[in-house]
Specification:
The chain has 443 residues and is α/β, with parallel strands linked by helices. The chain contains 19 helices and 14 strands. Helix 13 packs across helix 15 (354-369).
Length: 443
C-alpha cells in the first residue's frame, strides 16, 4: 500500500488537484481544511508526509508546522510548505518552523512528486537506520539539516554524479542511500565500496572485474562493482584514497560510460550512477598532486557537505535522546530519561568522531549507568583526559593520533575496546589507513 499524505489547504479546488496527482502516483491522501484539523488528523493517523499551505483561516501554516514539530507524536513527520509566498524571507521562516522543503505555487507536477518521493524515502531510510545494530548507522539527519534535505530532494531525481563531503562519522553513507532510494534507480542495487580498504594491487579488479588468468591468482572471471551495480548506484566511499592508476580508469568510465575488465579486451557499457564520498579536502589533494583535477571536477557535479557535529551543537540534545533510545532498544534496556548533566557535557565536547563517536559513547554510558537513567559521567571523565600537543602536517598529526589510540588499545584493532571502535572507523578502513600511513607495531 502506498504512503499516506496529508494535504492541508482551505481551498477545495487545490485539494482536489493534489489528490488526483498523488493518487495517480500511487499515494493515499487525507485532507484537512485548517491547521487545527491537520494537527488532530496527524496525531491520530501519523501520515508519512504533510503538504501544508501557509495562508489559512485560524492558525496559519507556520504555526501549524511549529505545533506538529513540538509534539512527540508528530515531530518526525516531514512537512513540505506549498504556497504562493515565494520570497526568501518566507522560505527562511518556513524552514525555521521545521519544514523539510518549500515549494512555490504554481508548481511543476513532476517536481512536486519528485520532492514528495524523496522525503518519504528519506524518512523510511532513517527508520531503517534506527533498527540496524552497530555504530555505523547513526542518524545524521536528526536536527536542523534542512539544507542537506533540500539538496537530496533536488539531486535525487536526476542521474548527476554526487560528491558527499564530511568528516568521519557525519553520515555520508546514509545520505548516499537516501539519494538512491529517492531516485528512479531505487529498484536496482546500491553497491558500496570502501576505497580505503582495498589493497592497492586489487583496486582495479574490485572496481572493474578481471578475466581468468589476468594475474596470478585470477582462477576465474570475476565481475567488478560497476557490473554489479548495473542499472543502479555505485557508492565510492573514501574516493580520495584511490591510487593514480585507478583514478585514471574511473575518469574514463565517468566520461565514456564504458570500461574493460582487467586483462580483457571487450568493452562493457556502464549504466551506473556514481556517488562519491570523502572525509578529505579533495581540492587540497589536487593541489598536492595526490588526486587528479579532471577526476575531481567530474565527481564534483553536485556537492553535498555534511557539517561536523561541533558546528551543530544545537542538535546535540535531540541527537542524544534519539541515539539513547536506539541504544536502549539494541541492549534490551528500559530508558526513562537522559540526565541534563549528560546532555550539557555532550554539548561541550568537540566530537572529532562526530555522530558515530557520540553513538558509541552513549551506548557505553548506557551500559555503565545500569539503571533507567542515562548518566555516564565516568565516560566523560575518561574523555576529558588532556591529549599531548602534536605539531606538524595534517598527515603527521593524523599518524600520531592513530598511533596513540592504538597504543592505548594495546594495538588491538577490532572488538569493543579496539582502536577502530574508539576512532569511529570500520576495522577495514583503519587497516587501510595504517597501510597508507606506514604505521606498524614496533615490538
Amino acid at each position: 500500500m502506498g504512503a499516506e499524505i496529508l494535504i492541508v489547504d482551505d481551498e477545495p479546488a487545490n485539494v482536489e488537484v493534489l489528490e488526483q496527482e498523488l493518487a495517480d502516483a500511487g499515494y493515499r491522501t487525507v485532507s484537512a481544511a485548517s491547521g487545527e484539523k491537520a494537527i488532530e488528523i496527524s496525531q491520530k493517523r501519523q501520515p508519512d508526509l504533510v503538504l501544508l499551505d501557509v495562508m489559512m483561516g485560524g492558525i496559519d501554516g507556520y504555526e501549524t508546522c511549529r505545533r506538529l514539530k513540538a509534539a512527540q507524536a508528530t515531530r518526525a513527520i516531514p512537512v513540505i510548505f506549498l504556497t504562493a509566498l515565494g520570497d526568501s524571507f518566507q522560505k527562511v521562516r518556513g524552514f525555521g518552523a521545521g519544514a523539510v522543503d518549500y515549494v512555490t505555487k504554481p508548481f511543476d507536477n513532476e517536481e512536486l512528486l519528485a520532492r514528495v518521493r524523496t522525503h518519504i524515502a528519506l524518512r523510511r531510510e532513517i527508520h531503517r537506520a534506527k533498527d540496524v545494530p552497530g555504530p555505523a548507522r547513526g542518524d545524521p539527519l536528526v536536527g536542523n539539516l534542512q539544507r542537506v534535505r533540500a539538496q537530496i530532494a533536488q539531486v535525487a531525481p536526476t542521474d548527476s554524479t554526487v560528491l558527499i563531503q564530511g568528516e568521519t562519522g557525519t553520515g555520508k553513507e546514509l545520505v548516499a542511500r537516501a539519494v538512491h532510494e529517492a531516485s528512479a534507480r531505487r529498484g536496482r542495487p546500491l553497491v558500496a565500496v570502501n576505497c580505503a580498504a582495498l589493497p592497492r594491487e586489487l583496486v582495479e579488479s574490485e572496481l572493474f572485474g578481471h578475466e581468468k588468468g589476468a594475474f596470478t591468482g585470477a582462477l576465474q572471471q570475476r565481475r567488478g562493482r560497476f557490473e554489479l551495480a548495473e542499472g543502479g548506484t555505485l557508492l565510492l566511499d573514501e574516493v580520495g584514497e584511490l591510487p593514480p592508476e585507478a583514478q585514471a580508469k574511473l575518469l574514463r568510465v565517468l566520461q565514456e560510460r564504458s570500461f574493460e575488465r582487467v586483462g580483457g579486451t571487450q568493452t562493457l557499457r556502464a549504466d551506473v550512477r556514481v556517488i562519491a564520498a570523502t572525509n578529505r579536502d579533495l581540492q587540497a589533494q589536487v593541489g598536492a598532486g595526490r588526486f587528479r583535477s579532471d577526476l575531481f571536477y567530474r565527481l564534483n557535479v553536485f556537492p553535498i557537505v555534511l557539517p561536523p557535529l561541533r558546528e551543530r551543537r544545537g542538535d546535540i540534545p535531540r541527537l542524544v535522546q534519539h541515539l539513547a533510545e536506539k541504544a536502549a532498544r539494541k541492549l534490551g534496556r528500559e530508558l526513562e530519561a537522559v540526565s541534563p548533566a549528560f546532555i550539557e557535557r555532550a554539548g561541550a565536547h568537540d566530537w572529532p568522531g562526530n555522530i558515530r563517536e557520540l553513538e558509541n559513547v552513549i551506548e557505553r554510558a548506557l551500559i555503565m549507568s545500569g539503571g533507567t537513567l542515562l548518566d555516564g559521567s565516568d565516560v566523560f571523565s575518561a574523555k576529558e583526559a588532556p591529549a599531548p600537543r602534536v605539531e606538524g602536517t595534517l598527515e603527521a598529526m593524523e599518524r600520531a593520533y592513530i598511533v596513540r589510540v592504538l597504543e592505548g588499545a594495546g594495538w588491538q584493532i577490532e572488538g569493543e575496546r579496539g582502536a577502530a571502535r574508539i576512532l569511529g572507523l570500520n576495522p577495514s578502513t583503519l587497516r587501510g589507513r595504517l597501510r597508507k600511513l606506514g604505521i606498524r607495531k614496533t615490538s
